[in-house]
Amino acid sequence: MTDDAIDGRIGFETDGRTLCIRDALEGEEFPLRFDREPEPRPALPELFHVPVDRAVSFEAGGMSILEQNTVTVRDAEGEFFAQLDDSMEFHRETYYFDVNGPVKVVVRIQDAAISATGITESEFGELTFDRPTTVTVGARSLHTRPEATITVPDDPAALAEAVSVFGSSIKEFTPERSWPTLRGYPPRIRLGEELDIPSPLVGPDTGIEVVVRPTYADVYRLSTLAYYLGAEVVVGDSPAIRLDTGYVESLPSEGVALEERVEELLRTWFFLDTLARTDGYVKSDRYEYELMGAKLPFYPPNLADRSMSERLMEYLEVDPETVAPYAPAWPTEAVLQPVREAADLLPHLAHVLAPVRIRGSGDPIVDAPVALGTSPWISRNDDGSTSEAVPSPDEVPSPAGTAVLVPDGYENRLTRTTTARGEIRVIAVTGSAERSESLRRALSDPAVPDKIGSWELIANPDANTLLANLTDPEVDIAYCGLPVEDGRIVAADGTVSLDGLGGAPALVVFEGVEDQEFGISVVENGGLSSVLTETPLDPELFRSLIGLLSSGVSIGPSVALSGVSAATQTRMVGDPGIEIASHSHPAMPVYRTWSRSANRHNITYGSVLSLSGRIGGELKQLFDEFQSKEELSGTLHTGEAVLDSSSLLELLNQGDSIVQLNGRLLLPEDVDSEADIERMAREYLSRDDRSIDTVEKHRFE
Q1: CA nearest 572: which of 403, 374, 701?
Q2: Looking at the record, which segments are called Disordered (predicted)?
Q3: Which class for 538: exposed (0-12), middle (13-18), buried (19 or more C-beta within 10 A)?
Q4: In the prediction, which pLDDT does 633 show?
């Protein structure tokens, strides 16, 4: 049996007066120090207002939080009480201290008056109790990687059993599971000779059954929805969803109609869960709630404590068309061939709630990828809508704008350390000194983007130099502008094959290359992703693309918002949601502006998701004139918001936003003053190729 050394997600160890909490899945530890040596004994996880994997209790008279972290204080009912930034006094009561560090820790202090030192005032926070009392420490694994591996034979019915335990990684099945932090990584799947589900993996008891026909196509199409519902997947004659109320929601039998209905249900139920959690663990005053509330036949928070089946019965009364305009776009959508070899992608796709569509005959004679991914940013039309076309590998094996999905890309991300912004290492190899100089000027003029830590341009490298750079895992972004011949890269003194090399940069961008085998080789060598452009990039596009990737923007949106995908046919390898640089923001705000005058700019605003910043989170826009409430991450808003050049400059100087002006990406280093913005606006407004129709088209886009 393969169990990946499962020994419990959370462990507690004492070392003198220190209690060390260990997240076994993440390999992270977090210490808390008490005024005496703890004598921990098992405690009930139900004592906490949020899910915890394990808890212990002991007596103490004070506590130190040894590392600076965000600490939220809640009262005995789990309601928000304070943020522990400054020193404060708490009257006698039971309190919860939520510590958001490398391990999710909640400390319950029972019936005590507390004097607390603010976290921002010292290296650590001190809590002194007025008398010894019972302290209960609970912890939950961040669960950003699979807990175990399931072996699956060549049998769709066995795969259905495996998918039934995907929900074991979801922390609870109230509407709170719409928060990404409560949806842990499903167990991985490995192809083998017989079904082997490790004993710690148990499917949740949600009372929901998803019925599939015993085909790979059916299991694939329903896998993400089954994960989100924590459903048992059973084999039957007709696709359906069975609730324990006795109600059966029949699903279409025809393949395309089935996947469309499944995606419709997933979007609707997920979105309504985000409304029902409004009064939950994290209170929110949501923009979408204001727009949607009056259109619903129920008050969403009233459903929070109902059973899953009872909630879904209410949700089924809502027309999906009512929800669709307000729901975020899926950051990744997948197209799989109906073959066994695609099965090991299912946990990775479920983790990001990616809808799954089936195309292709599964004919091994057809030379086409097993799986493709699409990004809403690359498939977005000029009017801001997303394309409805679903690529079919039998028609075009690897269409422009798609990504080949391979399990290695996801697995490499789980084991590879992501470089922090500001420390990104970039190299570019070119075939001529002239090309190298043009890229150097683009990257450094007016200034190198500040998220880049080091960079190097190499003209006409020999084979050894080329191999040294394209096998170096310390390189974050490699840009390869060398020609290719017969599946090999041409260096100054010969050719180089990428097959079977022992290392790779995190991302390689190949210019003038259509063959995705180059990109696949990079991922097989240990990289995360590749981008292939059909023609060489204009140096300014090169600067924009490297600038976005170095800022932590995921690959698909970087290719789109830099202007690369509009300028040349572009293909990718790896999930479009993979990011190369790490940052502290779960979603990156994006502002797309079009000038009405030199100082007035219409704006479309929203945010970009990634594999780290998954769907279900919330953010607050910078300016209240957009709207003053929280909103779901990953949404894009159109309307009549207008900014002046001063506000646009303020957005740009935040450093954590993507800003476009009249279709051109602006990096903070590109603009010094309002005058620069107004100059660019005047240049745009005076262009001869701009007609009245063009102005109106972008008026409120």
Answers
A1: 403
A2: 376-401
A3: middle
A4: 93
- Tokens 């780290």 belong to 612
What is the biggest distance separating any 2 CA atoms in the chain, rounded to whole angstroms?
A: 78
> What percent of the chain shows pLDDT beyond 70?
93
Report the C-alpha gap between 266 and 128 in whole angstroms: 47
- Tell me the pLDDT tens digit for each residue of 389-438: 788 877 888 899 999 999 999 999 999 999 999 999 999 999 999 999 99
In a domain, 396, yes or no: no
Give 192-238 pLDDT, tens digit per residue: 999 999 988 999 999 999 999 999 999 999 999 999 999 999 999 99
| Number of continuous H segments (helices) and E segments (strands) in the chain | 17, 39
Instruction: Quickly state the pLDDT bin for 338 (edges 50, 70, 90).
Output: very high
Nearest alpha carbon to residue 223 among 237, 215, 233, 214: 233
Structural domain of 126: 10-140
**Residue 287: its pLDDT value, please?**
83
Helix pair angle (156-163, 216-229), 10° resolution: 10
CB 596 within 8 A of CB 522: no
Residues in the chain: 701
- Tokens for 110, please give them: 């029972």
Is the same domain home to 578 and 448?
Answer: yes
Chain CA centroid to CA 571, Å: 20
- Please give the span between the terminal C-alpha atoms of the chain, in angstroms, as a whole number: 55
Regarding whether 179 and 124 lie in a shared domain, the answer is no
Best CA proximity match to 167, nearest among 203, 141, 193: 203
Do 522 and 504 contact (CB within 8 A), yes or no?
Answer: yes
Residue from 663, 686, 664 nearest 598 by CA = 686
Q: Pairing relation of β-strands 28-34 and 18-23?
A: antiparallel
**CA angle (575 as vertex; 559, 451 as ends), nearest 5:** 50
> Does residue 403 sit in helix, strand or coil?
strand
Residue 488: CB partners within 8 Å, gap ≥ 6? Answer: 495, 496, 497
Looking at the fold, whether 80 and 171 belong to one and the same domain comes out as no
In this structure, the answer to whether residues 103 and 177 fall within a common structural domain is no
* Domain stops at, among 96, 120, 140: 140
Q: Are 437 and 553 in contact (CB under 8 A)?
A: no
Question: Who's near 186: CB < 8 A, 6+ residues apart?
Answer: 146, 166, 167, 168, 169, 227, 346, 347, 350, 351
- The set of residues, in sequence order, having a beta carbon less than 8 Å from that of 556 and lying 6+ positions away, is 331, 332, 375, 377, 378, 403, 572, 576, 577
Reading phi first (left if > 0) and then psi (alpha if -120 to 50, else beta), residue 317 is in alpha
Cis peptide before 483 (omega within 30 of 0): no
List Cβ<8 Å contacts ≥24 apart for 414-420: 414/144, 414/145, 414/146, 416/473, 416/506, 416/526, 416/528, 418/506, 418/579, 418/580, 418/581, 418/582, 419/453, 419/476, 419/506, 419/580, 419/581, 419/582, 420/581, 420/582, 420/583
| Residue 5: pLDDT over 60 | no
Establish if 648 belongs to a structural domain: yes
Structural domain contains residue 445: yes
* Lowest pLDDT segment from 366-375, 376-385, 626-635: 376-385
**Paired sense of beta strands 80-83 and 70-74, if any:** antiparallel
Do residues 558 and 632 both lie within one domain?
A: no
* Cα distance between residue 664 and residue 669, in whole Å: 14
Is the Cβ–Cβ distance between 222 and 350 less than 8 Å?
Answer: no
